[in-house]
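Researcher: Going back to the complex we discussed earlier. I've cleaned up the inputs and rechecked each line, so this should be the final set. Can you rerun the prediction on the complete assembly and write out the structure?
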Amino acid sequence: MPAPSSHVAEVPGDENTAGDERAHFDSLIAREQRIEPRDWMPDEYRATLIRQVAQHAHSEIIGMQPEGMWITRAPSLRRKAILLAKVQDEAGHGMYLYSAAETLGADRADLTAKLIAGRQKYSSIFNYPTLTYADVGVIGWLVDGAAICNQVPLCRSSYGPYARAMVRICKEESFHQRQGYELLLTMMAGTPGQREMVQDAVDRWWWPSLMMFGPPDESSPNTARSMAWGVKRHTNDELRQSFVDMSVPQADRLGVTLPDTGLSWNGERGSYDFSEPDWAEFAQVVAGNGPCNAARLARRREAHENGEWVRAAAVAHATKRAARGGERP
Amino acid sequence: MSADWPLYEVFLRAKRGLNHVHVGSVHAPDAAMALRNARDLYTRRNEGVSIWVVASADITASSPDEKDAFFSSSADKVYRHPTFYQIPDDVPRI
Amino acid sequence: MTGHDVTVYESLANSGDDRRWAFGTGFEDPLAGVDMSVPSGVDGADLAAYATMLGDDALIASQRVAEWITRLPELEVETAIANVALDLLGQARMLFARACGADGSGRGEDDLAYLRDAHDWHNVCFVEGPDADFAGLVMRLALFATWRLAVFSRLRDSTDPILAAIAAKAAKELTYHRDFAAQWVVSLGDGTEHSHQRVQAALDALWPLVEELFLSSPVERRLQAVAVDPVMAREEFEDVVGRILEAATLRCPGPPGGGQHDGGQHGGGQGGRDGKHSEHLAALLDEMQSVARAHPGATW
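Model: Rerun complete. Updated structure for the full complex:
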C-alpha cells in the first residue's frame, strides 16, 4: 500500500495527541493485534522494521547466487527444474519482502542502492561458497531449515504486511527444505563418491547454519526491544536450540555425521547440548571478510548497473505511449 | 528521467466466487507490464484466476486517525444487522 | 522455549509424520501413466528423432535463458525469465519422454540430455549462441517463440496424440513467451536512442540465423501428418515479426536470411537439424553435462 503518513489528511477537530497515539499503539501490541501501514507507530519501530525486512529481502536476493550458479550444471533435468523453481521462489520472496518494506515508506530502489553500496547487510550464510552439487542439497536442508525456524515465528510479527509476507514465504520455503533433504537422501543411496560429497558439504555448512540465528543472546543488543514490540518472537539462542534438536535426528536418518564432538542428548533439558560456533569467524564474515562477500555484492551491483539502460528504456517507452494518448505512465 | 519503475498494488481473485484480495505490490514501467509482473510473481503456484493492478499513487485510503469520524456513524446503526430483530423461535427458515 | 513454541511448524504443517515439513513437494511426471504406443503406420525411430529435435531446441534455449538468472535488469524480470526457462525445460522433458517412449531404446530423458555429444544434437543453431546483452536475450526469445508457436499451434493437430497434447500445453506457454519478449522488444525499440540501437544490433546479429528455422529436415518430411513442416510456419512468422518490428520502430534487415546461408557460423548444409553446429554448442554442453558426466553410475 502507499507510503504511510505521506498524504494522510488532517482531520478537523481531531484531538488525538501524540500520547494517545502512543497508547493506542501500545494497546494494539499488547492485545496481539496487527499494526497496519497507515497506523501511527514510533519512529524506532518503523526504523527497526525497515532494517529487518530489508535485510531479509536482501538475503533472499543475494541467496539466489550460491545455488543459482548450479542451475546450468544440474546433473538431471528433474533437478534442474527443481533448482530453477527454487531460485525463482527466492526472487519472489525478496520481492514480497521489499513490498512489505515499501509499506513502511521505504523505497526499493533506495534499499537496493544501500545494499550494493555495502551499507545494508544480508545473511552472512550466503558469503560461503557452493563447491559441489551436494551443497545444493545441504543448503536446502540446513540453511533453509534454519531459515524456516527463524521465519515461522515471524508469521506472527506485529506488523501486518511483514507477517502476511512471511506466511506466504514459509509455505513456499518448506518445499525448499524438502527438496534439499530428498536430494541428500538420493545421493546417500548413490555411489561412495556421492556420499563423500554429502558429508563434505555437511561439514562445511553446519557451523555457518548455526550462526544464521545470530550472536548469543547476551551479545544481541536489539533482541529485548524487538521482542517487546512483537517484531521478533524468540531469542537467537532459543531458535538455535530448536534447530539443533530438529536437525540431529534428520542427520541420523540421512547417515551423516554432524561435525561437533560436543553434540550429545541432555535428558534433563530434553534437548541436545552442542558446542559454541566460532563467533570470531562470524564477526569476520559479517564485517565483509567472508570468502564470497565481494563476489556476491559485485554480481548484484553488476546486474543492477547493467540493467540501468533497460529500466530507463521501459520508462521512456511508457512515457511516449502515454503522450501518444495511450495509457499514462 | 528516473529509471526507477513506479509501484503498483496487486489484487488477486483466488477462484471464481471470491473477491479480489490485496496480495502485495510490484514495480513496473506501466500498467500492462505491471499485470505481467504480477502474474509472474503472485501466481507461480496457480493461486489466481484474475488479477487487478492499480498504481499505488492512485489509491485514496481512509486515514486511521479518522476512524472515529469515519466509521463510528455506522456503528450505531444497529438496525442494519439482522440480530437487531427479535423473531420468535417458531418461525421457520428465517 | 515452551513445548508449544518448539513445534513452530504446527501452525503450517499437515498433521501426522510429516510435521517437520510444512508442505508437500508435489513434483510429478507430466506424462506419467500416458499410453506411449506409436500410432500405426508411423515409424517409431522417425517419431523419436522428431520429438528429440523439438526437445533439443527447447532444452538449449532454456539453458541459455537460465544463464541470465541473477543478472537481469530488475527483480520482476528475474521471475519472468525463470518462468520462461522452466516452461522450455518442461517442454524438453515431455518431448524427450515422447522420444524415449517411441524408439524402444529404453533410454531416459537424462540419457538424451547428458550423454550426447554436440554432433548428436539436432537443435536449430538459432538457439545455441549466448546473448550479448538483454536486447539480445529478448530479441532471440521473441523470434524463437514466434517461430515455435507457429509450429506448435499446427502440431496440436498431429496424428500422434502425445505430440498433440504436448503441443497444446506448450502453445499456451509460447504465447506468453512471445508476448512477453515482444513487449520488451517494443519497449527497447521505442524507448531511448541507446536502447533502440542495442535492440536493432541484436536483430541484425540474429537475422542471418533465421533462414535455418524454415528448412524442413528429411524426418519432418517423412512424418507428414505427425510432424509440422516448418515451411508452413513461415507466413505466420513473417506476419507477426513484421508487426512487432513495426511497433518497435525497428528496421527489418531483409527477408529471413536474405536467401543466404550463414555458412561460416554453422557449417552450411542443413545446419543444426543435421548435427552441424556452431562452436557455441560444445561449450554449452561441456558446462551442462559436467556434473552428470563426472559421476558415472550416480543417481540424483
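Model: Worth noting: Residues 41-293 of chain C form a domain with the Ferritin fold (CATH 1.20.1260.10).
Researcher: Good, that matches what I expected from the previous run.
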